[in-house]
Request: fold
Amino acid sequence: MNETRASRDRTKGYFSCAFMMLAFVLPLIGFAAGWGRWDAQTGAIIGGGLFVLLMGTAVLIAFTIENLSWLFTFLPLLSSFVYTIAPDFVPGPVEDAVVVAVGAFFTLTLLVKKIAPSYVLLAVVVTGLYAWFGRDWVPGVVDELALFLLVLLLGFFVYRNYRRRPSGET
Reply:
């Protein structure tokens, strides 16, 4: 039974790595094709869409892995650093910063999945997605402050429950 589970996890890991690598190659081809056929903005939309689709698929597959290895947990961040070292097809540092931020976010969510309960993972994902997409919904700092306090309370709750565990549990 455990060998079957380990085999399934390994297969899922290979598929996730394949989609992650495709997420760094195919968007460049999509960008070039869109730019050559239409214009640079269309190419950027095609490349960005392919990146989000492929990287999202890689992360969704990674979330189904039951026993993540430490190497696989940090693979999104490491691969995003490799992307920044590679020659730039898009001038400027914007796409490099976005790729590193996405890699760091995915690494953080996989790390939290590996070592923390699922509700902590939910807090990290909601906070990260809100920081990317929802920050302009409420003007000023009110929404960021409320989100910070919510995550702080959740962290305090997790810390209190962790301290109450017997010393043999992890």
Remarks:
- The chain has six helices and no strands.
- Residues 2-115 form one domain.
